[in-house]
Design brief:
alpha/beta; five-stranded mixed beta sheet; 2 domains; single chain; Nucleotidyltransferase, domain 5
């Protein structure tokens, strides 16, 4: 239990209990919860983030199937030398999968388009919708032209209301808690390696209660299997 809490300091007792059941431990949830509390194990509160936004938006429901709606956003951190690094993440709203990322000193609209192109190739096509805030990289004419090529909808969230992009906000909180705050980054290459390793672990093993405690990749595979059988 202590090892689980140490390895997954942002996961609460329900995920720990599910993991224990999967490993063959026969313990009921209430007993596990009592032991968890008696051992003083708890989830530390998250830090709030601020973000400014400006521009227009379009109301689009959350993704209804894999590759339906991708959410994009930037995350910032720094090396231990104090050099800023910028991360652009893409999340599939339906499966919660970390679709793609790029890490660099600066990321402009051209870099975002290149990331979207690579992600589209790896996921058999473009999404129907890309959801973003109103940052200059996202409202650029180049990205608008990219979206128009395949009639991809650009859904901009309302200014100053990041909860409208809740999936990627939640993902960023998790990445900061589990990765960025626990590592001293040497340089860009080190940052890319750390994010790649964490991304694979998140996609393959992180259980989501909203996905029936499946990881994003397992949930996507289950959806594909069920829809192939029913086709």
């Amino acid at each position: 239990m202590h090892k689980f809490a140490k390895d997954h300091r942002r996961w609460e007792h329900r995920r720990a209990w599910r993991s224990a059941l999967a490993e063959g431990y026969g313990v009921c949830r209430e007993t596990f919860r009592r032991l968890w509390r008696e051992e003083g194990l708890r989830v530390l509160p998250r830090k709030k983030r601020k973000r400014l936004a400006a521009g227009t938006h379009r109301d689009v429901p959350a993704g209804q199937y894999p590759n339906d709606v991708w959410a994009l956003d930037f995350q910032f951190d720094s090396t231990w030398h104090g050099k800023t690094i910028k991360i652009c993440n893409i999340i599939d709203e339906y499966t919660r999968e970390h679709v793609a990322f790029t890490v660099d000193k600066k990321i402009d609209a051209g870099s975002v388009i290149e990331l979207l192109d690579l992600a589209s190739l790896e996921h058999s096509g473009r999404p129907r919708v890309i959801r973003m805030d109103n940052g200059p990289e996202f409202i650029a004419h180049a990205l608008h032209a990219w979206a128009e090529e395949d009639e991809t909808i650009q859904a901009f969230i309302p200014p100053g209301q990041p909860w409208h992009d809740g999936f990627v906000e939640s993902f960023h909180n998790r990445m900061r808690d589990e990765l960025l705050e626990d590592n001293s980054i040497e340089n860009l290459e080190h940052a890319r390696l750390l994010v790649a390793q964490w991304s694979q672990r998140y996609n393959d093993f992180h259980p989501h209660s909203s996905l029936g405690y499946l990881s994003p990749r397992k949930y996507a595979e289950q959806w594909k299997h069920e829809n192939t059988v029913n086709a």
